[in-house]
UniProtKB/TrEMBL annotation:
Molecular function GO labels: serine-type endopeptidase inhibitor activity
Protein name: Trypsin Inhibitor like cysteine rich domain protein
Keyword line: Disulfide bond, Protease inhibitor, Serine protease inhibitor
Ranges for domain TIL: 37-92, 98-148
SUPFAM superfamilies named among the record's database cross-references: Serine protease inhibitors (SSF57567)
Presence of keyword Transit peptide: no
Amino acid sequence: MSTTWIPPSKNTLIFSDSHCGTNTTITRPPRFNDKQCGQNEEYTDCVPHCETSCRGIQECADKTNATCTPGCTCKPGYRHNGLRKCVLPRHCYLAPGCKDNETWSKCSTCERKCGVESQTCSLCYSGCACNDGYARNSSNICTRIEKCA
């Protein structure tokens, strides 16, 4: 992810998000108060559209309506837990924030996905994984396997 100020106007910002493949040009709004950020957060002129949460999944905002806004994001090395607090990954299990039909797993990267018959799992990360009988669909939601489209 990178941000670049474009001359001659100091009020124009181009934001490029490599994880979601979005480019957004904005006019910089009034300055956000840095002191509004919480513990383990830092101010940014453009909150990233994609973040890795304690669920262990890269979660992206809707790319078609990408809006760049100032605000707070987790400091490097931290993730949002289910309570939207920035914590170290080793503390994610304290409040993982798993959604419906998910449970915390030591190896969430090998969960079943809709439309994928078999997969090779070489890396293993903890996070939320779909319960037995469920698979993750293209919207990152665990749905019953028979409802996979």
